[in-house]
Amino acid sequence: MSNRNLRVERLCASATAIALTAFVLPAVAMAQQAAPAAAADQAIVVTGIRASLDASAAIKRRNPVIVESISAEDIGKLPDVSIADSLARLPGVTAQRLEGRDQRLSIRGLGPDFGTTLLNGREQVTVGDNRGVEYDQYPSEFFKNVVVYKAANPSLVAAGISGTVDLRMLRPLAQNKRVMAVQLRGQMNGISALNPDSTNKGFRASAAYVDKFDNDTWGIAIGISAAHAPSQNERYNAWGFPNDSAAGGAMLLGGAKPYVQSNMLKRYGGVVTVEWQPSDKFHSTFDLLYSKFKETQHLRGIEFPLAAAWGSGATLQPGYTTSNGMVTSGTFTGVHAVQRNDLNERDANNLSLGWNGVLTLDHDMHLTLDASYSHAKRTDFLLETYTGTGYNSAGASDTVKISANPNGTYSIVPTLDYASTTQFGITDPRGWGYNGTSAVVQAGFLNRPSFKDDLASLRASLDGKFAGNNVVSGWEVGANFSRRKKTSAFKSYFLCPKGGTGSNCTVASGSTTFTSIPSAAVIGSVPLAYLGVPKMLALDPMYLYNNALTSSYDNRPVSLVRDNSVTENVLTGYAMLKLDGEVSGKKVTGALGVQVVHTDQSSDGSISNFSNGVVSIVPATGGAKFTNVLPSFNLSVEVARNSFIKLAASQTMVRPRMDQERVNQEYSTNPTYLSASAADVAAGKTYFSGTGGNPRLRPYQSTNFDISGEHYFRKGGYVSVAAYYKKLTDYIDPSQSFVYDFASAAKGVTGIGTTLGLVSAPANAGSGNLKGAEGTVQLPFGLFAPALDGFGVYGSLSYTDSTIRLASNPGKAITLPGLSDWVQNAAVYYEKSGFQARLSYRFRSTFLAEVSGLSANPTYRQAKSEGIVDAQIGYEFQPGSKLAGLAVMFQAKNLTDRPFITYQNYDPRQVIDYQRYGRDYYLSLSYKF
């Protein structure tokens, strides 16, 4: 995006915020004075958007903890396309888009690694690589509301530092009558199918049944959901920008990968809730949620190695142009590109079971028991296939012209015909294949990781009330035990052309280096015209895998020591005093208490060494036990009618990424220091050294202070302002050096002075702070005049600043992943007599995004600011109509077609990722009876 467009976007975002604060807020006082007192006490029945907003405001108002909330407009109907979409509209909450879908949530500037997600108050596992929940695994139709806790509470077990997201399912006994509801929604992406074996059209269908029986003593809610969600992605990825001598030391595009990507996410889910309350003495609830999804990604593109400084073998010709130290156009000869036809498949399922029982021991005392189990399993099939003009740059070379585009990408215009089956064949075009000891004909590669995550939890609590009308009105004590085990297993294979006499795909053994493309594998061609490539071969990668390629197990040391498991046994005890009463005529609610959390964590895996062509693998186990004390205090004071001041202070923690807790190490030995003593280790004179994980990692710690002012209007709507401060300690430095005992690897080694060595691994060696403020407005315009009834506005503006320093580089403050300094949300809506319309906008300033790097490993890059515009319009037939209960809705996402862009070295010209997802359109029909 050009600087001019960026300025326009920021101006629009600022104007929206100014309008909310400078125009709407002053009118509130006038509306308060003008509203007749009698009208304020009348019951106002609203539905749809307004009902959702009112329900969310009621949750925020009643809760003494500082929270935000979203509520379903009706059964099976959250106010947005997905849960993540809805959450991204809350004050201080942002979402990073992945594959065109909102996915990675940041709360108050802290990314998904700093928060937790609960389902009906219970911690959940994830199908992702770590702890951060991928919200695609939860069908949004199944939830009544979602509450985001921004402050801690003593009874909120497994709370996060940034916040805690609690997904809450519908409770059948709370419904007034039997409900049956069905919904069907068609979906289309604005970009035509980019690959011949994909589509840009999909659907979503759901059905729900809710009823009560036996004099309303028990109820049941059943829901099913199916979705086929397509997405298209015009991808561009730059390798980087070295200072190349061929360009006079100017920055030069080192290489690029233009791709077209087509995805299809297929998800099926079901939910059952059974609620039983035979008397006032006992209440039981059982929940089951199951979700299964499969995502298929077709990717086709070409890798163009360009910079000679990075061993491309290409030559930059005279006549290139530069601007401010960067080559903006030029011609390269001797280019040997890698044409790729890839297929990624992910199969995952998620199961959550939970039972809760509340027994009333006497009028003021209750015993609560809660048991839950959460399971997730995921397997990936990540297939890469390569074609080129010859093995190891031996075939015909290309002449390529590049030119910089205003959006930061480069147009790449080749000379060769990349759709030719006579000039291109199955091979290792660059000779990149290497198994650690010898060259491999790597005409493709297959990664097959799998993950399994299990969490069982048992909780018991006892609560009661104190006699009298004291402000300290009650008490609660409880304990929760959970056991979580995440297992990660990895397999990978080199793929080489069939034929020849070789083994293990090695060149030396006689493996085939080049073979023709089978005609049955050709399914057409695809254009990369958005970046200048007219077309390339579209091959069926599965046909190649099954018929034209042979596999050889990847036995490199780095590949052999990835399997691991991480187990966490956590016992949490808590005690709290509840506040509910009056002080000096002011209503006061809140809680004061403490959690004591004991953790026993361990990891099983292996450590490996590679020397003289031999791989040595030794089983390894590590772990730690520790206890954390987490006090917290919440206070809500109704300082005036419908006006509240809320205060919170707490100590919170969140556990490290699970891949950081693994015990796995890759180590090396230095015979020079074989007899070195333990005293020499600190000076770096060690026989053993390695890199890997750290099973002794402690959680991040945070001391938090929050204050919020909230005013609720009698006829709906509210305004609030909040400020927060977090002091972060035990922050994890991902590349800290510390002492590790390599005793398991020292067996059989004679003359060794010490088994201690140094490893480079994550450690709790950082600290810092985070502070910010946010404001929220939710106003129905009926407050101002009856003629405006049905119109409304809601929005928020937040600012966050952080300073984090790591021991490995204390002189430089780092950027928190996921933190945008400025986050703005705004929406205007109209809803009346069954008709509804909404236009919404959300903006986030630049942030550090997590993207997929080499071998699908997570890496971080600076992402450009982005503003997303969505809209919806619909109508629900009203009572009295023959079509009563039927509703139709049209929705559009990303109307401005905003791409996702990252860059490096704090230089927006050095664009690394450019992904255009296009607009998404939805047309839905729902019927309730």
Can you walk through the features of this model?
The structure is a single chain. The chain is mainly beta. The protein has a single domain, classed as Beta Barrel (Maltoporin, Chain A). The strands form five sheets. It has a 34-stranded mixed β-sheet that branches. It has a five-stranded mixed β-sheet with strand order 1-6-7-4-5. The longest helix has 32 residues. The N terminus is likely disordered.
Poorly predicted runs are 1-45
Strand element count: 48
Major sheet, described briefly?
34 strands, mixed
- The CATH topology turns out to be Maltoporin, Chain A
Mean pLDDT: 90
Please report the number of helical segments: 6
CATH architecture: Beta Barrel
* Beta-strand percent range: over 45%
Q: Calculate the terminal CA-CA distance, rounded to whole Å.
A: 48 Å
Please give the CATH class: Mainly Beta
Number of domains: 1
- Globally, the shape reads globular
Assign a percent range to the helix content: under 10%
- Tell me the structural class: mainly beta
Radius of gyration: 30 Å
CATH superfamily descriptor: TonB-dependent receptor, beta-barrel domain
